[in-house]
Amino acid sequence: MKKVFMIVALAVMVIAPISASAATWYKKNVTLPRTGDWDTVGRKAVSNTQGTFVSKNSHKVYSWIEVHATDKQVGPDRTWDGGEKHPHAQYHYTGLKGAKLHASFKTTWINYFTTTAHVEWAP
């Protein structure tokens, strides 16, 4: 039983990012506000896992996924340090395939710097 559970868990960890990577990635260069966050356009989730990506940021940036109608956060925050040389996409398991979601991006609250960044997300 333990072995079956391990195999299922491993399969979910491998398949979830693959299905998210098959989604269209929406990209934009933005200036994140000093306070508050910047939200993407709401889109229908094509899988249970959504992806976010941040590059060309000089300060730390957080991203997360929200239900579009309520702004309720689903899934964990992801973080990108400023000046990261080789950033990579990070994934948020939400289990909400078919729901209208959006990604939110925010600079860290402790620095209060306006940050420009290249942001991407896959619903």
Structural features:
single chain, 123 residues, alpha+beta, Jelly Rolls, 5-stranded antiparallel sheet, 4-stranded antiparallel sheet, 1 helix, 9 strands, signal, Bacteriocin
What does this structure look like?
With 123 residues, this protein is an alpha+beta fold. It has a single domain, classed as Jelly Rolls. The protein is built from one helix and nine strands, in the order H-E-E-E-E-E-E-E-E-E. The strands form two sheets. Strands 2, 3, 5, 6 and 8 form a five-stranded antiparallel sheet that branches. It has a four-stranded antiparallel sheet with strand order 1-9-4-7, covered by helices on one side. A hairpin with a 5-residue loop joins strand 5 and strand 6. The N and C termini lie far apart (34 Å). About 4% of the residues have low confidence.
What low-confidence regions span 5 or more consecutive residues with pLDDT below 50?
Answer: 8-12
Helix/strand-derived category reads: alpha+beta
Shape: globular
If helices are DSSP runs of H or I spanning 4 or more residues, what is the number of helices?
A: 1
Instruction: State the separation between the terminal residues, measured CA to CA.
Output: 34 Å
Task: Please give the structural blueprint.
Layout: H1 2-21, E1 26-32, E2 38-39, E3 43-44, E4 49-55, E5 61-67, E6 73-80, E7 90-93, E8 100-107, E9 115-122
Summed up:
The chain has 123 residues and is of the alpha+beta class. It has a single domain, classed as Jelly Rolls (Sandwich), CATH 2.60.120. The protein has one helix and nine strands.
